[in-house]
Amino acid sequence: MNETIRNLWARAQALWGRLAPAQKRNLIIATGAGIACLAAVLWVVLRPHYVTIMSGLDDKSLGEVQQALEQMKIPNQIVGTSIEVPASEADTARVQLAMQGLPKTGYYGYNIPNSFGMTDAQFNIAVLDALQQSLSQTIESIDGVESAQVHIVLPQEQLFVSQPQDTAKASVFVQLGPGVQLTPAQVYGIQQLVAHSVKGLSAGDVTVVDQNGVVLQGTAGTSANDVSGVTELQVRQQLEQSLTSQLTAGLDQIVGPGNAVVVVHANLTFDKVESKSHTVAPVPGSDTGVLTSTQQIRRSTVGSAQSPGGIAGQATSNPGASTYAGTANAGNNVTSTDNEVTNQYDNNYTDTTTVRDPIQLRGYSVGVLINSNGTGVNPQVLRQIRSFVTSAVGAATGQGAVNSVSVVAVPFRANAAATSVVSGGFPWWLLAVLGLAAGAGGIAYGVFRSRRRQAVPLEDQVLTAAEASLEPAQLSEEERLREQLARLAQERPAEFANLLRTWLMED
């Protein structure tokens, strides 16, 4: 290997030495240009292909959309009033931004067909069709959505200004997977996606319908304590359909598809209850409570005290009182003190406000019908089915919540097709199949008869041609026939096989 490389290197040096200076310069320039062209081609081919997802945005909306894309770690670039992302991330970016209610202004961008050779009406129809297909593909990228169809109705232009202007409307049909339920936030995202893609279309004019014909309602930021955008009937239907699909999928594995009917009723309450309580509790280890305030008042009085006797020789003011003679006593100074203390005590107290969830599940009532015709259902199997349904429903939680499960085995009636056969004769599709089979049999029989009629003349022609090529004097009759058959088998094997088949049938 090293010897081969050295030989190639020596030849290259020898070739380079035989070149003139001008040839060497031209070779260097050509090589550099080739490398530059190859690098440019690789850069164009390998770089991410960016597509426009939004156009006509103001500066504030551009900043909000770019910030949201960076949080989702989606590469982006701003071109004027538009924003672009890699083509592989375009659908995801549109859906996620729509679920966040972005953009506030502007509209989504999609690929517009070439208008060369089209009239204005044809171009508008082509643009609307491309928009509907692109929206359908974007909605199908949402988890749980198997297929989607978008129908947009644009208002017609009025000839006079005084005529009322209609508003644009749209409808979205979604085919959901088994057991899949779109959340109100996802429905709201679909409405926003379609509304921001059509000029003059609001999210309130976008209707979303699933394969069951149920109109789906969407709200932004719906939580358990806010069911303003979700009707009671829709919540009940979602819970019942989810449990029904899960039970049906499990029972199909036990008794076979179509042999079990599940009916679920969800006992829900939608009362929003708010309760307030004020609780007073004594302080642990104290009989008086917590000292909250203290007030202390102190009074001091200073005065002189008089002697109990009166002035000598003077009558008293009380009639009948005894009068004593004596001397006047000198007054003594007296000091009195009054101290008053007031203490304020209080106990511990707690104010509690409790708001219950407006959606309270009080339990399920589940009824299961099992087909007893040909399914081999016995009491033991019924007990097992009841145990499975009880476990799937789960334990009832909450005050007054009770689950009720009933499993009954009954014979199912025949389906509509079998009933129509018994009561009204054969159905049209069965008659058509029988007619086609009879026609095919008649054609096959005719072909067989024609080949049989042609077998004997073909034998005579073959024998005549073979006899003409041989000399009758040289071969006997048996040898001549054997030679003819051998030559026929070699030259025309298909005709030889038909001849043998005809002989066997005649025998």
Automatic annotation (TrEMBL):
GO terms for molecular function: cytoskeletal motor activity. Residues 342-352 have a biased composition (Low complexity). Residues 251-412 form the Flagellar M-ring C-terminal domain. Keywords: Bacterial flagellum, Cell membrane, Cell projection, Cilium, Flagellum, Membrane, Transmembrane, Transmembrane helix. Its main location: other. GO terms for biological process: bacterial-type flagellum-dependent cell motility. The keyword Transmembrane helix applies. Belongs to the FliF family. This is Flagellar M-ring protein. It comes from Alicyclobacillus cellulosilyticus.
